[in-house]
Amino acid sequence: xxxxRSTQPCFQPNTAFVLPNLKATTKDIIKGxxxxxxxxxxxxxxxxxxxxxxxxxxxxxxxxxxxxAMSMCSEITPEQWAKVNxxxxxxxENDRRFAETFRKDTLRLIHAKDQFxxxxxxxxxRWICERIGDLTFWSGEGKxxxxxxxxxxxxxxxxxxxxxxAIGEMVGPLQVSEECLCQRQKRIGVDxxxxxxEKELIQEVRVIKTCQEQLERMRDKVKxxxxxxxxxxxILEKDLDDxxxxxxxxxxxxxxxxxxxxxxxxxxxxxxxxxxxxxxSWAKFSEDNIVRSQAERVNTRxxxxxxxxxxxxxxxxxxxxxxxxxRAFTNRxxxxxxxxxxxxxxxxxxLQEIFQTEHTIADLEHTISNKKKPLQVAQNRLGExxxxxxxxxCKDSPHTMLMSEVQHIQSTLSALSxxxxxxxxxxxxxxxxKSLLEEELFVKAHSLFIDQERCMGLRRAFPSSxxxxxx
Length: 471
Hints:
By secondary structure, the chain is mainly alpha-helical. It is built from 9 helices and no strands.
């Protein structure tokens, strides 16, 4: 039997455990009054060196202690001593035999359970791998169908843009004027002025309702088809996203290993039994989505061809443009462009000044930051020198100089902080000016966009075949 090692330098007789009365216990075992207890006595955790020193001390005590007249007579005979030792030996052998049997049975149980666990885990990995293959197949089919649907939808969106453009340009002078007036009402700020262009546009009133009604009906039909395509596309994308998440989860499950330290136990196993579908319904759901998408692609292609025919038939009935309104537009665009260029010049100057002011603020902040360390050093020196004892706490030259240094740095920091506040205020004023200029530039750019791009874009030519091609 091996004793447990101890870090104590030697054995201390006064330990915290209590040994039984060996004399009484041995006597009872010899006389047969009690059986040897199956539980081992608690032993002190001592080292071999401690036990040896304890025996040496006991020997010295035995050799040097005085011998009383009648107290050293022992009551235990050699036969009793041998009987006690034999009982302890038998008890030790029985305990070792039981422990060995228990250990071998436990090892066989562990080996059997490890084999069963490895087998079930291999089966789970195989089924997860097959599931990943199914997810990959249906994800590929859904993605391919989604790309086809988006291609048809993009073509229909371009048709819708051409229809919107044609409604503004193919309705004749009346519809073009009304569209331009409507667009110019979207001007903002000081540019919302009743100018010569607006006066000329009011006079330009003509009506061609037949072309407008045909194009509007076609546009409504295109919008409905686009909405149907959008719904189907959302369903496909939702299905693809779900499959992507499932693919990542199954891939992560397939790559899980038992030695991963991040794996934790799940207490409530009833939550793991919740499912929504079975493999048959799962595959049918994906197949139904693809079939529905194919049907919508056919409808989209039909609507696209019909819209092409309608625009081609109405493009031959439009009127020519009135140059008088165009000249007014040209003059107004030139005035707005000149004002915009002037604003841009002032904006560039303001931005340059803001840049320089920001650099000044950065320099002030850096200087203030650099002054804090010398101030802290001087303050700490003063604080340390206040710890001088008795008469050594003298207001000497170093003390005076340190006080002067602290006051000088503090006054410097105060002046720099005030200057920094003034610089920040100046920067804020420049920023406000920049914001005002940006707002005015936005107003001018918005007005130019309305007059030059939208209105003149409509009025460059009345509806004709070249204007109906995709932009």
